[in-house]
Amino acid sequence: MPQGVVVIGVQWGDEGKGKIVDYYAASADVVARFQGGNNAGHTIVVQGQQTILHLIPSGVLHPHTTCLVGSGVVVDPEIFLEEIETLRALGVNNLGGRVFLSDRCHLILDYHRALDEARESKRGGKIGTTKRGIGPAYEDRAARRGLRVADLFNDNLFEERLRTNLEEKNFLLKNFYHVDAVPVSKSILKYEQMRERLKPFVKDVSALLNEEIQKGKKVLYEGAQGVLLDVDYGTYPYVTSSQTLPSQSALGLGARLPDDTLFVGTLKAYSTRVGEGPFPTELKDELGTRLRETGGEFGATTGRPRRCGWLDLFAVKYALTVSGIRNVAVTKADVLSGLDELKICVGYSHEGRSLNSMPADTAILSEVKPIYETLKGWREDLKNIRAAKDIPAPCLEYLRFIEQYTGTKVNLVSTGADRENVIDIQRAF
Ligand code: IMP
User: Fold this and answer.
1) Distance, CA of 234 to CA of 152 (rounded, Å)
2) What is the whole-number distance in angstroms between the Cα of residue 259 and the centre of ligand 1?
3) Rounded to the nearest whole angstrom, what is the distance from the C-alpha of residue 225 to the centroid of ligand 1?
4) How remote is the CA of residue 213 from the centroid of ligand 1, in Å?
5) Residue 45's pLDDT is what?
6) Which residue in 29, 42, 62, 110 is the catalytic one?
7) pLDDT at 91
8) 332: how many CB neighbours lie within 10 A of its CB?
9) Which residues surround ligand 1 with Cβ inside 6 Å?
10) Is 14 a catalytic residue?
11) Which one is catalytic: 14, 76, 116, 140?
């Protein structure tokens, strides 16, 4: 692995990034998250045992790695501590000495979750969020009234700002959303009690990471969600509230990227999306159900069934272009086995005209008709394939099509949930 690898998703999240991160983490010294929060859900299966992590980098399952949560991440301290306990129960050791949380991270507090939930329950303008308080926490960060990890350790400031914020949030919760207010004293006490348990993990993550890079350590940057959920370049407003592009990795950690950094776009062999928003290649028929069942397409964070459809390469090419990505890891190719033919979306038409670029207007995006190319399917089960030479010809053709259409290189193909199911196919072409 080069000194830096940034792994992100190039669709609407849930591309199987956890799996690709896990693959590179075997050779990394440091694994770092730079955006999002516990809206993410990275599922990793090691020798049949499944672990889902939402906040702590999934590289933690490799015992030699240092795991960092950068300032670009919004942190729910309760979830952070819960994950630490879960990992300890799984026998993952020495967490105090290798998991670090930036003191600049903004906190997700009770009122952020309450507001997220209240907004989603109110009719009209629903985004279909994970209700984890992500959007409201990023809003407060931009509005300069957020509370950060460092503030937890400043008694007066924490209590005073929490009280001021709750005055406003509780007014909204009670009078606008007509739901229960967040109890002030209880909330203050709860967070103050977490302080001591959090303390060993809090660090100047930016300084630490810069030092590690200087020493030549290998760093893996673990993205969450996907480019089509990016707050600027995604299908706004049906997006998350952070930047999901690979360039965010330097910003969200306050560290320069090593000179030889590889950007890897994780691309699922078909498309899925959770929550609301336009999805041109969505299959609402039996085939969509088949992909959902075969691919286990149920949210790792919320358990919601994911909407499924054909691979939308038109949207993926846009995502790869805005991200500057030239290397791709294709996941879940095994889910497509057994279909006679496969469709790939290579363009959109709108009111009889084909579009040259991804429309910014969500209304147009929800009206476009996908233009498909049809490829031959394959019957073989891919799960036991370990070498590129054994990949069935139509599957190789599918991968080649992705490369040629997007102008990228497919480096890795994942063919099953387990750590073993990754084929390095660079040499196959
Ligand atoms: P939020 O990030 O909870 O505010 O949700 C905003 C949108 O992003 C919703 O459509 C969510 O379903 C989606 N979303 C957030 N995180 C993930 C993820 O990790 N995978 C897939 N979709 C996500």
Assistant:
1) 33
2) 31
3) 7
4) 31
5) 75
6) 42
7) 87
8) 27
9) 12-14, 39-41, 127-130, 132, 134-135, 224-225, 229, 238, 240-241, 274-275
10) yes
11) 14
> Considering the entire predicted model, what is its pTM?
0.96
Q: So what's the pLDDT on residue 429? A: 39
Catalytic residue at 42? yes
Closest CA to 161 of 182, 143, 173, 145: 145
CA distance 30 to 62: 10
Cα of 314 vs centre of ligand 1, distance in Å, is 21
Using most ligand atoms within 8 A of CB, pick from 43, 229, 297 the residue to mutate for ligand 1.
229
Sequential DSSP letters for 237-286: TSS-SS--STTHHHHTTTSPPPSSEEEEEEEESSEEE-SSS--TTB--SH
Q: What is the pLDDT of residue 282?
A: 98
Which tokens sit at 101? Answer: 């949380």
Dihedral sign for Cα atoms in the order 382, 386, 392, 393: positive
| Cβ neighbour number for residue 314 with a 10 Å cutoff | 24
Q: How far apart are the first and last CA of the chain?
A: 20
The Cβ of residue 176 has, within 10 Å, a number of other Cβ atoms equal to 11
pLDDT at 419: 82
Place of tokens 């099953």: 416
Residue with tokens 């062999």: 269
Q: Whose CA is nearest to atom 16 of ligand 1?
A: 39
Per-residue pLDDT, 143: 97
> What is the distance between the alpha carbons of residues 429 and 396, in angstroms, rounded to a whole number?
9
Tokens at 280, concatenated: 């041109």
Interatomic CA distance for residues 213 and 227, integer angstroms: 26
Q: How far apart are CA 274 and CA 357, in angstroms?
A: 24
* Predicted pLDDT of residue 428: 41
| 227: amino acid identity, one letter | V
- Burial class from Cβ neighbours inside 10 Å (0-12, 13-18, 19+) for residue 346 reads middle
Burial class (CB within 10 angstroms; exposed 0-12, middle 13-18, buried 19+) of 175: exposed
List the structure tokens of 338: 């057994």
Ligand 1 nearest atom to the CA of residue 132, by list position: 3
Q: What tokens were used for 401?
A: 């099509």
Which parts of the chain have pLDDT scores under 50? Answer: 427-429
